[in-house]
Each structure stands twice: as structure tokens, then as C-alpha cells.
Amino acid sequence: MRNKFDMQLECLSEQLIHMGELCEVAINRATTALQHGSMEEAKEVIRADEEIDQMEKDIERLCLKLLLQQQPVARDLRQISAALKMITDMERIGDQASDIAEIIISEKKSEGAEIPKIGKMSEAVAKMVRDSVTAYVKRDLELSRKVMEADDAVDQLFEENKRDLIAFIAQNKGDAGREIIDLIMVAKYLERIGDHATNIAEWVEFSITGIHKESQV
């Protein structure tokens, strides 16, 4: 019985890895779509979000099956409950990437955007997502805490990006205003993705230690 349970836990880890990979792909494609003005890449992000939504349902069913059909010990229970929390944040990451794609599609952006700091934000949050899921699978407490620390750098990039874009509007009055506001929104979506990756890392910490950051406040 325990062997079967361990195999199902392994399946849970594999599905979480795949869902995390889909989130990472969606983030990267959304940024690529913005940088190259690619409608097709933007549409691929929306399709990826649909797959992420389906994976959330599949993993939720597996977690409930593990809880109802097995008798998990405390450590297993933390691992399963953490997974349930993590997939909620991953689903929202897919939504945020899709929101970026929707901006590109709705505004019919056909030209690339010169946005080095947004590119840095995208790379940083994609790594946070990847590392947070890796920390869960490998039960790596140190890596989960590095993800939490990385959120400060993403927040700083967002503030710098926002200041630069607002200054650009002030210096270039005219038609650029709406496009710059869109870019600020894109940066905000990436900042939120960083927040969700941090949430995932906090649940990883809980799965390992039994202590969640919010419960310490």
C-alpha cells in the first residue's frame, strides 16, 4: 500500500514539474510576443494558459484522491496540502501571462518594444517559478528561501521600470502615453508573477518544516 502511495506522490511531483514548465514557457512567450510584436506567440500564451488550467484540475483530483484513499502521515499531509496551494498560484501565473498576451492582441501591437528591464523581470520571475517547483520536488529549503529573497530584486526592477516609463511619458507628450501605460501594466503583471512564485516557495517551506510564514506573523 505504501509503495503505491509513494508512486502516486512521485506522479504528483512530475505533474507539478510539468505545470511549472508550462508557466515558465507562458512567461517567456508573453515577453517574446511583446519584444517582437508577435500575435502568434501571444495566442500561444493563451493556449498555454488553458493547458495550465486543466493541469490545475488534474493535480487537484490527484491530491484529493491521495487524501481520501490513503492515510497520509503528517509529512505526506503537508506535502499534499502544499501542492494544492501551489497549483492555485501557478494557475494565477498562467492568468497573468495570458493578461500580457491579451494586451498585445487587443492593442494589435505589431512592432517590437525596447524594454530591457521588462526582459530582466521576465527572466527573473521565470527562474523563480522554476526554482520554487524544484525546491518542492527536491525538498530543498535553502532554494525555496532564495526564491523568496529574489522577489525583492523583482520588486526593485518594477519600481525602476515604472519610473523610467513615467519619465518617458513626461518627456514625450503625444501618442506614446497609451503604449507606455500598457508597458507599465505588463511590468505589474510580471511583478505579480514574482509574488505568486514567492507564495509557492512559502508553501514549499511549509511542506518541509511544517511552518508557514503567515502563521509566524
From TrEMBL:
* Assembly and binders: Homodimer.
Q: Which residues form the PhoU domain?
A: 17-104, 119-204
Question: This protein is called what?
Answer: Phosphate-specific transport system accessory protein PhoU
Coiled coil: present as a keyword of the record?
A: yes
**What is its biological role?**
Plays a role in the regulation of phosphate uptake.
Q: GO biological process: what's one of them?
A: phosphate ion transport
Question: Which organism is this protein's natural source?
Answer: Dorea phocaeensis
Q: Which UniProt keywords apply?
A: Coiled coil, Cytoplasm, Phosphate transport, Transport
Where would one find coiled-coil regions in this protein? 38-65
Keyword Coiled coil present in the record's keywords: the answer is yes
Similarity annotation: Belongs to the PhoU family.
Gene Ontology cellular component list = cytoplasm
* Compartments where located: Cytoplasm
